[in-house]
């Protein structure tokens, strides 16, 4: 993926200390980009010294390259203004967000503030500085209840979204579309992630949830490592082969490479583009558990409990537009996802705080 | 409408110097409420002295009552916090917003910032102060393209909204619904306005657009008074009786009384309620022009031009839920709307700046 011509192109990555952000930065550095990372440590572990977060220290070690880091909150417009005065960015990858679905229903104002107001602040600062290339970390949750499968980018959005987190992603997509329509000098890429899992194959960086995991695979991994007692499987009576929910899991390294691939289209003006980032196929909860047991050699105790409100039976995407336009598709399979996740979890049973 | 039991109940009205806000305050004062009004003067005329805006000076004169005013911007969280420390509000009527459809497409970030972030700031400040009764000035624009007529409150929302202004209203509705679901101690009323027109029957307060009017009737009135040369009628080939667009126009005094009526349901806990505020019937552009000519005795020169993107043929609401639950319905007819608008426009050809 590396292209020496990208060298010296400076990319701002927000939420850079987090799960997706840190994996993106690793791939960006490997591809020859320079990176400024910012994070407010809402979801990421800060370093004791208050300088480089642990995840990015490890990214530097893995890549043998340096990245610049600032603790910046998207709600602090003055900090953002300073950031754009200090650096001249080629483009922005905006990963910063609160992302826990359940929590978003409990404290919606915090989610709307962080994710919507935060993005507006970032866009205003970028606009004022003339930085008009923008990649947004969106989510397949904007599609709501699937009306057909696989879900392509033309699928309706914004209808039947069951939680405030998903609504913040949809609102930001609408804001970005209106912004681009109002000012055609913007180039904006919306990446709709399916379900990111796994970790870098080194097992040195990975997903490090603060508190009980919200997503299936970190939960599975924490059960396997003995940090949690038992997995709850929400519903086994869905209309799927084994009755459990089916989702499109995408290896986070593939996802990160999708961001690097996306940046290449900034060489020409295009306006606004939307890409699904997923594998194009679904696995059930029990298939994921079984694959993880095989990869880890650990049993994963689980219990079937009733369905959870807002969950759909089956969801997977059509990633063919990304393949056609970005030359990107997933390279890693289910075994890779499980093996790399287990490597991260077993080497770092308590996440980044394990290594210190 | 007055109820002595309401005396001493203090209502915060945001956007209080504006068109709907000032008419609401007049009716609130007449009904015995106390009022604190705030405005940032984005759409309203500030007084030379920097104290009470001209619209509210006239409201005080008309009602022979006082209201308290502060210049506060919804984007200034510190000002909002001070406001809630200074006063103990019974409830909030949130009218403050940028509201020009065309402008919203040109400067969407400003619209999202003012209308969405501004409302989030207000809700956070109110929540922190324990003020959990909230009335939101929404708009029938959230219904998008009508799927049936008349539009009742169960009509789908959020699909086919053609401009950022309308999207900000829909986003705030979603935020309010999520907030109420997360904390059942909130009581929230969403009022979906159809097309407010006219003015107080005294002609002393009215709609005072800064720059060319965005809406039909202020434009008609400014043509009649000689301030504008000619009305443009966008499309005469719609599937309507005379080919021009049909809308549900509601007299602003009826609309304001709808707010006072709505406050009565705060006596009991109800969660979240949504009400259409409209007359339940539509008039075409040419019917409105003709009625205005009759009421004013002035000719209104107009020219038919092509349709405008995003306009629908016909839109009118079903206000029967508001009648049933709030005991409110429109009392004023088309002649009242035109006569009162003309009184305002002819007495104040340049709006509030005429009187100074």
UniProtKB/TrEMBL annotation, chains A, B:
Q: Which InterPro entries match?
A: NAD(P)-bd_dom, NAD(P)-bd_dom_sf, UDP_G4E
| Quaternary structure and partners | Homodimer.
GO biological process terms, alphabetically, are: galactose catabolic process via UDP-galactose, Leloir pathway
Q: Which UniProt keywords apply?
A: Carbohydrate metabolism, Galactose metabolism, Isomerase, NAD
* Annotated family: Belongs to the NAD(P)-dependent epimerase/dehydratase family.
> Which PANTHER family did the record assign?
UDP-GLUCOSE 4-EPIMERASE
Q: Which cofactor does it need?
A: NAD(+)
Query: Which residue ranges run through the membrane?
Result: none
Any one GO MF term held by the record is: UDP-glucose 4-epimerase activity
> What is the role of the protein in this entry?
Catalyzes two distinct but analogous reactions: the reversible epimerization of UDP-glucose to UDP-galactose and the reversible epimerization of UDP-N-acetylglucosamine to UDP-N-acetylgalactosamine. The reaction with UDP-Gal plays a critical role in the Leloir pathway of galactose catabolism in which galactose is converted to the glycolytic intermediate glucose 6-phosphate. It contributes to the catabolism of dietary galactose and enables the endogenous biosynthesis of both UDP-Gal and UDP-GalNAc when exogenous sources are limited.
Pathway per its UniProt entry is:
Carbohydrate metabolism; galactose metabolism
- Official protein name in the record: UDP-glucose 4-epimerase
Could you tell me the EC number(s) of this protein?
5.1.3.2
State the reactions this protein catalyses.
UDP-alpha-D-glucose = UDP-alpha-D-galactose; UDP-N-acetyl-alpha-D-glucosamine = UDP-N-acetyl-alpha-D-galactosamine
* Gene3D superfamilies linked to this entry: NAD(P)-binding Rossmann-like Domain (3.40.50.720), UDP-galactose 4-epimerase, domain 1 (3.90.25.10)
What are its GO cellular component terms? Answer: cytosol
- Domain (NAD(P)-binding) spans 12-340
| Origin: domain of life | Eukaryota
């Amino acid at each position: 993926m590396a292209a020496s011509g990208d060298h010296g192109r400076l990319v701002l990555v927000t939420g850079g200390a987090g799960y997706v952000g840190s994996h993106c930065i690793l791939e960006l550095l490997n591809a020859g980009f320079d990176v400024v990372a910012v994070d407010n440590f809402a979801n990421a572990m800060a370093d004791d010294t208050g300088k480089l977060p642990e995840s990015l220290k490890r990214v530097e070690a893995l890549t043998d390259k340096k990245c610049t880091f600032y603790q910046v909150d998207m709600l602090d417009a003055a900090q953002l203004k300073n950031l754009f005065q200090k650096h001249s960015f080629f483009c922005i990858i905006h990963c910063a967000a609160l992302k826990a679905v359940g929590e978003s229903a409990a404290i919606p104002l915090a989610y709307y503030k962080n994710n919507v107001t935060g993005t507006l602040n970032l866009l205003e600062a970028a606009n004022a500085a003339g930085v008009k290339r923008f990649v947004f970390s969106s989510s397949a949750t904007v599609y709501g209840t699937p009306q057909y499968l696989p879900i392509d980018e033309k699928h309706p959005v914004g209808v039947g979204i069951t939680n405030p987190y998903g609504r913040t992603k949809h609102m930001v997509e609408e804001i970005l579309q209106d912004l681009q329509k109002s000012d055609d000098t913007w180039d904006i890429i919306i990446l709709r992630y399916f379900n990111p899992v796994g970790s870098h194959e080194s097992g040195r960086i990975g997903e490090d949830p603060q508190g009980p995991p919200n997503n299936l695979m970190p939960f599975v991994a924490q059960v396997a490592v003995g940090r949690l007692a038992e997995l709850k499987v929400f519903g086994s009576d869905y209309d799927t082969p084994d009755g459990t929910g089916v989702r499109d899991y995408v290896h986070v390294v593939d996802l990160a490479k999708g961001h690097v691939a996306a940046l290449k289209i900034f060489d020409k003006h295009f306006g606004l583009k939307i890409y699904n980032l997923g594998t194009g196929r679904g696995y059930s909860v029990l298939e994921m558990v079984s694959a993880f047991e095989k990869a880890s050699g650990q049993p994963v105790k689980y219990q079937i409990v009733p369905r959870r409100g807002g969950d759909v039976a089956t969801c997977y995407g059509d990633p063919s537009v990304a393949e056609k336009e970005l030359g990107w598709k997933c390279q890693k399979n289910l075994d890779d996802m499980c093996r790399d996740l287990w490597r991260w979890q077993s080497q770092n049973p308590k996440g980044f705080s394990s290594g210190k």
